[in-house]
Amino acid sequence: xxxxxxxxxxxxxxxxxxxxxxxxxxxxxxxxxxxxxxxxxxxxxxxxxxxxxxxxxxxxxxxxxxxxxxxxxxxxxxxxxx
Length: 82
Fold this sequence. Notes:
40% helix, single chain, mainly alpha
């Protein structure tokens, strides 16, 4: 007989906005699913679907070679040249 896989459940105490709680109550009443089970399921789905950001910036976001990274106005000293 196979042993059931062990379920480890440690949830974090999350502070959520009242509108999130209201939405959770609406969905729970519509589906008949308990709020805690619904919250656990939605949180799990969101975390599992999340992807970390890429390590390299997008090519279009990089500064082209030979261009200045700081605008000239911010590099000027307070003195005026004559």
